[in-house]
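Need the bound structure for aspartic acid, inputs here:
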Amino acid sequence: MMKATATPPWSRRALRAPGSVIGGVSARVSHGARNTGLAVRLLAIVLLLMAAPTSRSQSATNFVLVIHGGAGVLPKEDLTPEKEKAARATLDAALLAGHSLLARGGKSVDAVIAAIMILEDSPIFNAGKGSVLNAEGTVSMDASIMDGATSKAGACADVKHVKNPIQLARLVMEQTPHVLLAGDGAELLAKEHGLKMMPADYFITEHRKLQLQRVQQLEKARKGGEKKAQAPSLESIGTVGAVALDQHGNLAAGTSTGGMVNKRFGRIGDSPVIGAGTYAHNLTCAVSGTGHGEFFLRSVVCYDIAARMEYQGVALTNAAEEVVMRKLKDAGGRGGVIAVDAKGNVAMPFNTEGMYRGVIRANGKPWTAIRKE
Ligand code: ASP
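Answer from helper R.:
Posting the output first, comments after.
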């Protein structure tokens, strides 16, 4: 585990040291050109053009991907070393998948989707396979994506067979004039575009069945007035999300979830609602939330962070802290966000015991954490 330092290992400052590929080529080129004349100079120019695609307005070393796997972490005593290892390995894989796209000059939207798909395919996190169960014991998933360059957004809610709901959110964004499709209509779009569909059983794991039993027992006990069951279980929140800044200076955010354990049939949370669970705009930031969705909906958490930056000129970290650690917390809402601004600054505040999270920058080294560091 990484130790807390004055400069967090995932911050922009921590990564200043390594020189950029383009910078390296450029330095070698000018040295060679001085010594060997025109032919080398020409070769150098060709090399430079190959190394630096013309559309990159930002820097080739200042891209970043941030992910979360939910703010509902297991209590310390239940998170065995094996479970922690598996969770961190999956976070690493998601970070590396997104990084390989960003490093090649890929778009932030693609990196966000690539990372989220890995988390959706893992049974560990509450999205796609391994989604939490509703009160009926079935899975119903929500997802959303927003492109900060275009302000386009897409989302799906209450889908039950789409293997990767984040892909369906993208379809809604790119293939329809709408922002949010739900239920059968959303699944129809997925089928029309050949997305992978799975039987309902695929999404359900033993762990989630036991979790539902536990949470339903707790609920019963709470209704019966038992003291220790007063606080809502942190188990009931999960969700995965990603935010990214690419080499072109474009931001994107995405979120995917099975929602909250034991939710009422038909309940939809914040995750597919643009502004509440997901938001991105190149002028300000990209944000993905995780937590008690009803509070995120009422406080429009993700947009609130961007709005503070836009209208008050507040820095990302301050805006995110203020919203999650004060406003949301004071309202009784538990959860956290991951956020990145157009300069590559990262914020990851959470008011719960922990939040599965990770960051990867140009050096390609994944950083992950679960509790406060
Ligand atoms: N925000 C999600 C929802 O309320 C749950 C979560 O993030 O864990 O559906």
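Comments: The chain has a mean pLDDT of 87. The pocket of aspartic acid is lined by residues 70, 72, 126, 237-239, 257, 259-260, 269-271, 277, 290-291, 293, 296 (CB under 6 Å).
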